[in-house]
Amino acid sequence: MKIKLTLICFIATLFSLQAQTAVKPTLLENSGSISGKVIDQKTNEPLAYVNITIKENNKIITGGITSEKGLFQIKNLALKDYVVEIQFIGYKTITKSAKLTENITLNLNTISLEEDAIELKGVSVISERSTIEQKIDRKVINVGKDLTTSGATASDIMSNIPSVNVDQDGKISLRGNENVRILIDGRPSNIDAAQLLKQIPSTSIKKIELITNPSAKYNPEGMSGIINIVLHKNASDGFNASINTGLTFAKKPKINSSTNMNYRTGKLNFFGTYGNNFGKKLNEGNILRLDDLSNQHLDIINNDKSHLFKIGMDYYINDKNTLSVYTNQNKQLGNAQIDVAITNPDASKNLFQNSKYKGNNTDGTYNLAFKHLTKKEGESLDLEINHSIYTGDEISNFRTAFTNPIIPSSSYRDNINEKRQNSIVNLDYVNPLNEKSKLELGAETRIVRTDNNYVTTNSALSNSNYQYDLDINSAYVTFGQKFSKIGYQLGARLESYKVNAKLNNTVAFKDDYITVYPSASMTYSPSEKDQFQISYSRRVDRPSLDQTKPIREFSTPRITSIGNPELQPQFTNSVEVNYTKTITKGSITTGVFVRSINNEINRIIYPDPQNQNQQILSYDNFDNNRAYGFEASLNYKINSWWDIQPAVDFSSIAQKGLISVYNSTSNSFDFVTKQVDAAAFNARFTSNFKANKNLRFLLFGFYRSGVDGVQFNGKEMYKIDAGGRYSFLKDKATLSIRFNDIFDTMKAGFSGDNPYPQVGQFSWESQSVYVGFNYMFGAGKNKSLQRKQRDNNTKEGGGGMF
Fold first, then answer.
1. What is the largest CA-CA distance in the chain?
2. What is the pTM of this model?
3. 776 vs 300, which has greater pLDDT?
């Protein structure tokens, strides 16, 4: 019922905005007014932000909202007979007649609203099952309790989202491509995306937006698009809170927990969140070289401890102005141990390396946002200033021992220190020109400064200092119109981009250019049950700091990972067509896409020039590539106790890049061009069963086909999960359990021919049992504040975790 009431109030407000922007007749014709005061029936306290809708012959004419004191006055009304509807989330709607033919000024006096008895109170109310909506520029997955049962964190949920994949390291890919931008409530984060998603409790997520063809309003980073995670935001009077905790049983136990708190009184709203993750994570891998039959086995133990908290405040200055401030603070302590054993047919060549990594990372973000609403309905101006500071220290110790006693053991130590500052200033303006048209303008300045120091005791390596500075200035404009069945949006973003990289005070890379990123989208709805959407966008994927810095990321006796300072940005042009069909018991969503990529950034592996038996893992720009594919998903309720959600997606990828090939004549390796036409297929199936009012069960299946690449060919992957959820204490408490990868089938296998013929497989603690508990409490009443409006504005925030 709460969801239905929210929808009714939103639609009523939308129509009222359209009505108030219409051209008004003369004051003589519109001299009537309707006023009154709205209070709570039990407490007699005034209710602010109540929706007031004025109707004539069941048609919405105009409307408004009540003030902080519960007062309202609707002016400039023609002298006719009207019906006034008073609507508010959590309360029963009241209808009153208003005859301005008898009174020019009509006072409805005090109107008492009665609470809706079936409303669920608490910090957030999550629907039973997830739903998918196709909007003009994005696909929206509204997260239900079936998804929150998937696991403890956002990373666990992502594995269940159509078109999204999560690998064993937590890296996200969209439509088979890892060049995707992750946003939290519309904002970027300094924290690595894989790490960040493991820290967000699944119960904190309201919806997940897949923006595969973003408009010009968004920064153009992310070749395959944007994944925006929208968190629950509390806008309730009084104190409200929730506690989440989860325990994962695998080879090693892991625990995560979070607390969300909110207190609102008068014009002030305070919010705070604390979350943590503890536990060891085990991974292992095996790589067999087929040319010399040497075998490399890796045992990896990560012992991470992370703490993240957010604290902030909203100040509702008046009905038109809101000021928000908050800070995020993240602290991560990490210890890792990697044991590498290399065995050979000749046992005298066997060796063992032990590597120990100790890291200490701190990230702080400070945000100030101001929102101004003008007298014109729907017109707003947003200013946001965001500054973040990141510091990281890593100390690594390497010790290598050989079976052959003639070869002495060796050891060395690395120390990497990184400092990074990121400042962003956004200004956004929205103007609904009329009831059918909307204009958006904006500008952004982004300044990134980084400094990396590498100190080593290895005589074969050199100490270095690497600085990577970035300046981006941009401005955008979008214009959209919505008619009865057709809507469209056009936009363009003009951007100035400058990068300056220095290695030991010598220029390592420099780039400076100005470019335009256009976007266009159109929707066509021949009926309420059918919607078509077509869109186009041009995007860029710029090299990240880790991809460019020529400093060791990790090292084993056989392979060392470093960045490439000369890496160029890659540009993507993308077109897609989507169709959504609403049926009696659910919905069907399908889509096709075509993508063209210039200078695609990809992994490359080649022999170390100083030691042909070792390999360098780095990045390089491949040639112009293309991709196309389709996806389809069904959300279907078979009956009152059973619903299913199957989804499939397919991508055909044509890649062209450089590989290193052994030249027997020169006894060296040459770089040659290799072209691959690969196909990727993914399938998911979710089935939810309702045993009774409080008990639910879930069954989930996943399959990913093998994919050929320029460097390596990946093997197929698949698994089956099962889980259940029990709600009690009037739905304020929830106990969840899930058995992941029941048959222990999730393995990451691969094979490759260059620079050496080799096959391998990596595995992790995919088979696990997760137990989670969530409890919501508080005495506040839910209110429809300006924060509710900000839930749908990705530039706005407050509350939630990030």
1. 109
2. 0.73
3. 300
Terminus-to-terminus CA distance in the chain, angstroms?
29
Mean pLDDT computed over 722-726? 89
In 3D space, the residue among 653, 655, 656, 661 whose CA is nearest the CA of residue 681 turns out to be 653
Whether 120 shows a pLDDT value over 80: the answer reads no
Peptide bond into 201 cis (omega under 30): no
Token pair, residue 220, equals 């153009």
Phi-psi region at 729: left, alpha or beta (left = phi > 0; alpha = psi -120 to 50): left
Q: Which two tokens stand for residue 454?
A: 């590498």
Three-state SS at 251: coil
Q: Is the pLDDT of residue 53 over 80?
A: yes
pLDDT at 386: 92
- Least confident segment among 23-27, 258-262, 273-277: 23-27
Contact 111, 38 (CB under 8 A): yes
Concatenated DSSP letters of 135-155: -SS-EEEE--HHHHTT-SBHH
- What is the SS3 assignment for 12? helix
Q: Is 683 helix (H, G, I), strand (E, B) or coil?
A: strand
CB count, 10 Å around CB of 77? 22
Residue of higher predicted confidence among 152 and 295:
295
Stronger pLDDT, 136 or 711, i.e. the higher one: 711
Query: Using H for helix, E for strand and C for coil, what is the string for 20-63?
Result: HCCCCCCCCCCCEEEEEEEEECCCCCECCCCEEEEEECCEEEEE
Structure token digits, residue 629: 């594919």
Neighbours of 447 (CB within 10 A): 15
Three-state secondary-structure class, residue 2 = helix
The three-class DSSP label of residue 5 is helix
Distances 443 to 119, 647, 763 between C-alpha atoms, Å:
42, 38, 45
Q: Which tokens belong to 649?
A: 């997606």
Which two structure tokens, joined as six digits, stand for 317?
């200055």
**Across residues 89-97, what is the average pLDDT?**
80
Q: Whose CA is closest to 145, among 638, 633, 696, 733?
A: 696
**CA separation for the pair 669, 663 (Å, rounded):** 6
Q: Is 145 left (phi over 0), alpha (psi -120 to 50) or beta?
A: alpha
The residues near 350 (Cβ < 8 Å, ≥ 6 apart) are: 341, 342, 343, 344, 402, 403, 404
If you write DSSP's letter for every residue of 532-574 in order, what string do you get?
EEEEEEEEEEPPPHHHH--S-SEE-SSEEE---TTPPPEEEEE
Q: Using CB atoms within 10 Å of the CB of residue 75, give its burial: 0 to 12 exposed, 13 to 18 middle, 19+ buried.
A: middle
Average confidence (pLDDT) over 405-422: 92
Asked if pLDDT for residue 791 goes beyond 50, the answer is: no
Q: What is the secondary structure of 409-441 as a DSSP string?
A: PEEEEEEEEEEEEEEEEEEEEEE--SSSEEEEE
Q: How far apart are CA 168 and CA 747, in angstroms?
A: 9
Per-residue pLDDT tens digits for 492-503: 999 999 999 999
Euclidean distance between CA atoms 74 and 110, whole angstroms:
15
pLDDT of residue 448: 94
Cβ count within 10 A of residue 318: 10
Residues 784, 785, 790: CA angle, nearest 5 degrees? 110
* Neighbour-count burial of 343, counting CB atoms closer than 10 A to its CB (0-12 exposed, 13-18 middle, 19+ buried): middle
What 3 state SS string does 573-621 have?
EEEEEEEEEEECCEEEEEEEEEEEEECCEEEEEEEECCEEEEEEEEEEE
For residue 410, which amino acid is it? S
C-alpha 472/C-alpha 459 separation (Å) is 39
* DSSP codes of every residue in 346-384: SGGG-EEEEEEEEEEEEEEEEEEEEEEE-SSTT-EEEEE
Q: How far apart are CA 645 and CA 43, in angstroms?
A: 44
Give the separation between CA 425 and CA 445, rounded to whole angstroms.
5
Measure the CA–CA gap between 476 and 455, rounded to whole angstroms: 43
